[in-house]
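Researcher: We plan to redesign the surface later, but first we want a full-length starting point. Tokens attached.
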């Protein structure tokens, strides 16, 4: 395989990864909306979508890493920056510039995706915490005289059923 062809394949792989990052943006935004709507059916469907798109993203990352490792860089680390430098040295200026533009776009989009993902995780943690508190209230109101004990024989302050949704 010619070097130029390998660089073009790398460019296509990086473009696919960047597009998948943009898909993940949309999926995460939709997931957050569904979490706020509290619709269990849509939430289950959205969870499946998120899982599938995350797997696609992971597979695209692996493919890109594998392709980057096939490029010889004379002892340098296989990074897009070092590949861009090598492209420029070989006279593939257009490919080098395209790779650099894609690298910057993917980096910027990945940072935004991480921020959105963090927001989604915090929302999920908040929902989980509220769910545990609600269950604790429900179980404690059901029978005020009921006492639960832990394995050491001490009074368990969590109450019945709380262990199912207890945040670890």
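Model: Full-length starting sequence:
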């Amino acid at each position: 395989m010619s070097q130029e062809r390998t660089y073009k394949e790398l460019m296509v792989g990086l473009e696919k990864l960047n597009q998948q990052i943009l898909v993940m943006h949309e999926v995460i935004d939709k997931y957050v909306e569904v979490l706020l709507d509290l619709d269990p059916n849509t939430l289950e469907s959205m969870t499946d979508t998120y899982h599938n798109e995350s797997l696609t993203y992971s597979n695209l990352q692996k493919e890109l890493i594998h392709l980057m490792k096939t490029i010889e860089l004379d002892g340098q680390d296989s990074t897009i920056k070092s590949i861009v430098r090598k492209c420029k040295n070989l006279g593939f200026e257009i490919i080098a510039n395209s790779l650099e533009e894609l690298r910057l776009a993917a980096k910027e989009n990945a940072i935004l995706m991480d921020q959105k993902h963090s927001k989604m995780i915090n929302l999920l943690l908040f929902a989980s915490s509220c769910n545990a508190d609600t269950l604790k209230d429900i179980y404690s109101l059901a029978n005020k005289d009921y006492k639960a004990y832990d394995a050491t024989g001490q009074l368990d302050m969590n109450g019945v059923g709380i262990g199912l949704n207890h945040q670890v």
